[in-house]
Structure formats: C-alpha cells, structure tokens
Amino acid sequence: MRAATGLSEVTIRRWLLTLEHRGLITCWPQSEPLSRRSLGLTDDALTMMLHFLQEI
Q1: Nearest to 16 by CA among 28, 25, 8
Q2: Angstrom distances, CA of residue 26 to CA of 3, 45, 54, 55
Q3: Can you tell me the distance from the alpha carbon of 27 to that of 50, in angstroms, rounded to the nearest whole number?
Q4: What is the maximum span of the chain, computed from C-alpha positions, in angstroms?
Q5: pLDDT for res 33
Q6: What does each C-alpha distance from 56 to 25, 28, 47 come to in angstroms?
Q7: Model confidence pLDDT, tens digit, residues 1-56
Q8: Do strands 38-41 and 25-28 pair parallel, antiparallel, or not at all (unpaired)?
Q9: 18 touches 45 (CB < 8 A)
Q10: d(CA 46, CA 38)
Q11: What pLDDT is attached to residue 32?
C-alpha cells in the first residue's frame, strides 16, 4: 500500500485507524495485524459517498 500512495507506513496506519474509529471503514480479520487486513467501506461511508457523487 505504501508504494501506491507514497505515504509512510505510520501515516497510512494513523489514517486507517482514524477512518475505522469514525465508522467509515471496517477491517478484517481483527486477529491479523493492520497491514494484513482487508478493508471495506461501512454502510454509512457508502451512503455518504453516493450522496457526494450525486452532488457533482
């Protein structure tokens, strides 16, 4: 993921934890380290994204 974004691993981890804490993404399985988890948008985030896209 670092190569695709150009961001440091610390920055990526901080943003992933922030987005997860705000209920915008979900990470699984929880038993894996953050770097090995799969990511997905929550229903709330998907709804927000759809509203945003309808406005542009």
Answers
A1: 25
A2: 22, 10, 24, 25
A3: 21
A4: 39
A5: 82
A6: 23, 32, 15
A7: 567 888 998 998 899 999 999 999 999 998 888 778 899 999 999 999 999 999 99
A8: antiparallel
A9: no
A10: 16
A11: 86
d(CA 41, CA 19): 10
Helices within the chain (DSSP H only): 2-5, 9-21, 43-55
Instruction: Determine the residue type at 42.
Output: T
Residue 42, classed as helix, strand or coil, is coil
What pLDDT sits at residue 1?
59
At residue 41, what are phi and psi to the nearest 5 degrees?
A: -75, 145
pLDDT for position 47: 97
Closest CA to 38 of 47, 26, 49: 26
Tokens standing for residue 24 = 């915008």
